[in-house]
Write a structure and sequence with these properties.
The chain is built from three helices and four strands, in the order ααββαββ. With about 110 residues, the chain is an alpha+beta fold. Strand 1 and strand 2 form a beta hairpin.
């Protein structure tokens, strides 16, 4: 192997390692950001006040939202009203009992006190 090929191979290996370590550090930062953010969102839901939940969601008029009842809301206004009627009005409190991470998705399981 010539010196030139060895240097090129070394450079490629170094770049590969640098990129891999950067991605690992970025994933760690994202994980830490989620560890801080998720409890805030869960606490906002626990207030039973949709205006406290709203800052954590994209409320664009043409976005669809999916939840337990009914399964699909066509826009934020429908979701806001539906959550109030289906989750907040019939309960005195809601607390998440479990948070599960599945790759890019985080799932919380609510528990109603009523």
């Amino acid at each position: 192997m010539t010196l030139r090929k060895m240097l090129l191979t070394g450079l490629i290996a170094s770049l590969t390692l640098a990129i891999a370590s950067f991605q690992a550090a970025s994933a760690d930062r994202e994980e830490e950001a989620l560890r801080v953010l998720v409890p805030k969102i869960v606490d906002a839901w626990g207030t039973l006040d949709i205006s406290k939940v709203e800052p954590y969601y994209a409320t664009d008029a043409d976005f669809a939202y999916f939840d337990i009842a009914p399964m699909k809301y066509s826009n934020w206004k429908e979701y806001r009203e539906g959550v109030q009627k289906a989750l907040f009005d019939p309960n005195r409190s809601i607390k998440a009992t479990q948070a599960t991470r599945r790759q890019f998705l985080r799932i919380t399981t609510p528990n109603s006190a009523d």
